[in-house]
Amino acid sequence: MKQVNDFVWGPVMLCFLVGTGIFLTVRLKFKPWLNLPYAVKMILTKKDNTEGDVTPFQSLMIALSATVGTGNIVGVATAMVLGGPGALVWMWISAAFGLSTKYGESVLAVKYRETNERGEMAGGPMYAMKNGIGGVAGRVLAFLFAVFAVCASFGIGNMTQANSIAAAFNSSFGVDPALIGSILVILSMVILFKGVRSIGAVSSVVVPAMAAFYVVMALIVIVVNAGNLPAGIGEIFRMAFAPEAVAGGVGGSIIASMLTAMRWGVARGVFSNEAGLGSAPIAAAAAKTDHASRQGYVNMTGTFFDTMIICVLTGLVIASSGMLGTIDPETGKAVSGAQMTILAFSSVFGEHARVIVSTSLALFAFSTILGWEYYGEKALEYLVSNHDILVAYRVIFSFITYVGATQTLDLVWDFSDTANGLMAIPNLICLLWLSKDIAKECFDYEDRVVVREKQGEKVDLSVEG
């Protein structure tokens, strides 16, 4: 699995991911960057007179519930240990171009969505490929994406999250992973069997609350350790672009090259914000909106909140704590993952850090499980429209959380990374293929809506026609 994973996430894939983001950013004339403040202001807009299953805000919360997960706590720490502190810079850079990627894939998801036999919205990259690209090429790409998405739902969206929850509670409180796995199975089934509106309702409450709690705790650590912050930030940028560097001072004794920092920063950044994977657009397609570009901007903010704020805060907590590079006396290796983040928080909160990080991790990870079940189910629905099979998927998905909670971390992470990479390939091809459609929607919306709304005018295209 490791060999396959290294190939999937090699230099070619990194260039493909970031390159697609750069291409779209330039083709869209940097509108996703320029309109980011506008997009952030728009996320609370509610338009119930338009087609869709959930509000734009609930759609974003479903997407955020799936993205704000272990990547924000475990992934950042893993990247900074294996790729050096400089990996944080590459997470941020990939996220900056990921704004355009997330915008583009969400626009296509709404533009080419369909209504299924139960009256629910069905959309995402597979429908953009089928209806936008069309022909044999479109159907083949759509099939491959849907298959990879279902596989990824069990990896990035399930086993990795359950594994991190179980590991955190086991190391912090000595709770048996089997017990955690059993609890996750029950909670998942209770919520998932009520459908997308239930997931949206739960996410719209849990996601903002858990994010606010974590941000406040992280800011407290950063402020208390402010004396170490300049050195920590300096180390982060020095190692991000150094051909071969050894971290010093607050960076411990970690050795990493620029390519290593880039590899781990981009991989963990994509794992966290999912820009380019094509998963979040599945939630975007369910939103009530009057223009594909409007929901594109709404969902784009998910990358901003996830990586540019929460992941960066975790990175600064670790960098300012002086704990990076700490060696575990039992294994003789550098402390990584959730334990690294707990160590960083303990520099201020002491033993209470375990409670803070474990609670945050549990909430982040469980919300991701909910969001990714929706993604996986919609991908499976594209492949087989039989409702009984979809119900069976919910049952199997819920029970897989138990498997994830009781497996080793390395196996789970490698499986998740591989599934992510395979899922991204057809999606990125689709984005490049249909970039003309994305640009057309972007500039049409800019002329008809953005300019007017920035001047204070209320615009609803569903009324204007």
TrEMBL record:
The chain crosses the membrane at residues 7-26, 73-93, 136-157, 177-193, 205-224, 236-259, 304-327, 355-375, 387-405, 411-434. It is a multi-pass membrane protein. GO terms for molecular function: amino acid:sodium symporter activity. It holds the Pfam family Na_Ala_symp. It comes from the Bacteria. It is found in: Cell membrane. Gene3D superfamilies: Amino acid/polyamine transporter I (1.20.1740.10). Keywords: Cell membrane, Membrane, Symport, Transmembrane, Transmembrane helix, Transport. GO terms for cellular component: plasma membrane. Belongs to the alanine or glycine:cation symporter (AGCS) (TC 2.A.25) family. This is Sodium:alanine symporter family protein. It comes from Anaerovibrio slackiae.
